[in-house]
Structure prediction request, 124 residues.
Amino acid sequence: MTLPGSWGAEQIEELHPLEGEPVLTKYTYGAFIGTNLDTILRRLDVQTIMVTGTDLNICAGDTIHQAFAVGYHVVAVSDCLACFSRIGREHAEQFKAMGLYLIENHFGTTVDSTTLFAVMNRGR
Prediction:
């Protein structure tokens, strides 16, 4: 967790929002609890969310679970998700494999970015 105004809450220059894009401040692990993300998405008639990010076993995972719980179709972009572990890289990879297994079998769909972009670019 990071505190607003701290270095951990700073936005990466290349990822700054475009003019008019909504910006949320998260106060817990998932992006839905304590924010207006659900309201924003419903106003835009969004039914499917694609999740990328860090800590599939914590933050990204909680966001996926919360999205599923409130009725969104969830797509986890497998090669754009990461896990971390103080025990080491092998342990982090095990966390990620388990997280992707849980998503695929209980919460949504997993897809790699190459497949996702190929599907999104069909018909263009």
Remarks:
- Strands lie at 48-53, 73-81, 109-111.
- Helices lie at 37-43, 59-69, 89-107, 113-121.
